[in-house]
Amino acid sequence: MDFQIQIICQLLLAAFLGSLIGLEREIKRKGAGLQTYSLVTLGACLFAVIAFSLAKSINDFNPSMIIMAIALGMGFIGAGAIVRGEFHIEGLTTAAGLWTAAAIGLAVGANFYFLAIAATFLVIGILVGFGLIEEKILKKK
C-alpha cells in the first residue's frame, strides 16, 4: 500500500511541476500551456514508474529502452509544435520545453525529486529571464 501512495505522490508532483511550466506558457499565451505540460510530465512519470517497477520484477528488463522511447516520442511531438513561416520559425521554444518537461517527469518517476524540482525552476527561469532579455534588450518579437 505504501508503494501505491508513493506512486500517486510521484504522479501528483510530476503534474504539479508540469503545471508550473505550463502556467508560464499560459501567461505568454502560447499554444501549449497548463494542460499540455502537466500531461507531458505526468505521462513521462507514469512510463518511468512502470519501467522501473518492471525492472525490479523482471530480471532481464532494461528500463533505459522506455526512457529512450519517451525522449524520441517527445521529439515527434515537439516537431509537430514547430511551424515554419516564410520569414520565421515558431514553436522551437515550445518543442524544447515539452521535451524538457518529459525529462522532468522521468526524473520524478525515477525518484530524483530534487533534480526534477531544480530543473523545473531552471526551465521557468530560462523562459521568464531569457524571454525578458529577448523582448527588452534584443527587441525580438
How would you summarize this macromolecular structure in one to three sentences?
The chain has one domain (2-137). 79% of the residues lie in helices and 3% in strands.
For the termini, the CA-CA separation is 51 Å
> How many E strands?
2
User: What is the CA-atom radius of gyration, in angstroms?
Assistant: 16 Å
Total number of distinct structural domains: 1
Chain-averaged pLDDT: 89
**What's the order of the H and E elements?**
HHHEEHH
Residue windows where pLDDT falls under 50 for at least 5 positions: none
Kindly report the spatial arrangement of strands forming the biggest sheet.
1-2
Beta-strand proportion: under 5%
Helix content: over 70%
Topology (SSEs and partners):
Blueprint: H1 2-27, H2 34-57, H3 64-81, E1 83-84, E2 89-90, H4 92-109, H5 113-137
Antiparallel strand pairs: 1-2
Helix pairs in contact: 1-2, 1-4, 1-5, 2-3, 2-4, 3-4, 4-5
Offer a few descriptive terms.
single chain; 141 residues; mainly alpha; two-stranded antiparallel sheet; 5 helices; 2 strands; 79% helix; 3% strand; elongated
Task: Please give a structural write-up.
There is one protein chain. The protein is mainly alpha-helical and 141 residues long. Helices cover 79% and strands 3% of the residues. It has one domain (2-137). The longest helix has 26 residues, at 2-27. It has a two-stranded antiparallel sheet with strand order 1-2. It is elongated and about 55 Å long. It contains 5 helices and 2 strands; from the N terminus they run αααββαα. The chain has helices at residues 2-27, 34-57, 64-81, 92-109, 113-137, and strands at 83-84, 89-90.
